[in-house]
Design goal:
Order of helices and strands: HEEEHEEEE
CATH topology: Nuclear Transport Factor 2, Chain: A
Shape: globular
Radius of gyration: 14 Å
Protein name: NTF2-related export protein
CATH architecture: Roll
Pfam family, one: NTF2
Function: Has a role in nuclear-cytoplasmic transport of proteins and mRNAs.
Helix content: 10-25%
InterPro entries: NTF2 (IPR045875), NTF2-like_dom_sf (IPR032710), NTF2_dom (IPR002075), Nuclear_transport_factor_2_euk (IPR018222)
Distance between the termini: 39 Å
Strand content: 35-45%
Organism: Stephanodiscus triporus
Length: 137
């Protein structure tokens, strides 16, 4: 698969899973010494993974899941997905823009950055995830 195909599949899977309820993320995130993301099957944050959500940084699977759970009910609408190779030949970076509805509120613009690292052909884990809402300037 090309980096673009990996990014497209990952983004679709990540946001569909997130939108279907944070509790469903419990089966997607694991904590062990050899975590992987098998495209479409699993999305894994390992204990080295970091999430920065609106400036708050958390690390490790349990803390990442808890932070995402604290957001509440969400619905994402992805507008753009950009992908580039990383300095690590076994990694890619993905930048996503779109709109997010939190609860019943009006949609807000967001951007999110992912750094996916491969542990084997076709298997990745989310090493870094940075999320920001974009308010009017």
């Amino acid at each position: 698969m090309s980096a673009e195909e990996i990014a497209t599949a990952f983004v679709q899977h990540f946001y569909q899973t997130f939108d279907n309820g944070v509790d469903s993320l419990g089966g997607l995130f694991v904590s062990n010494s050899y975590p992987i993301l098998r495209l479409i099957d699993r999305c894994v944050h390992n204990e080295q993974s970091m999430l920065t959500f609106e400036g708050q940084q958390v690390g490790g699977s349990a803390a990442i899941i808890e932070k995402l759970r604290s957001v509440g009910s969400v619905a994402h609408s992805v507008k753009t997905t950009d992908v580039q190779p990383s300095s690590n030949p076994n990694a890619i970076i993905i930048f996503v823009t779109g709109a997010i509805k939190i609860g019943g509120d009006n949609p807000l613009h967001f951007c999110e950055f992912f750094h996916l690292v491969s542990t084997a052909p076709g298997q990745y884990y989310v090493h870094n995830d940075v999320f920001r809402l974009n308010y009017g300037l």
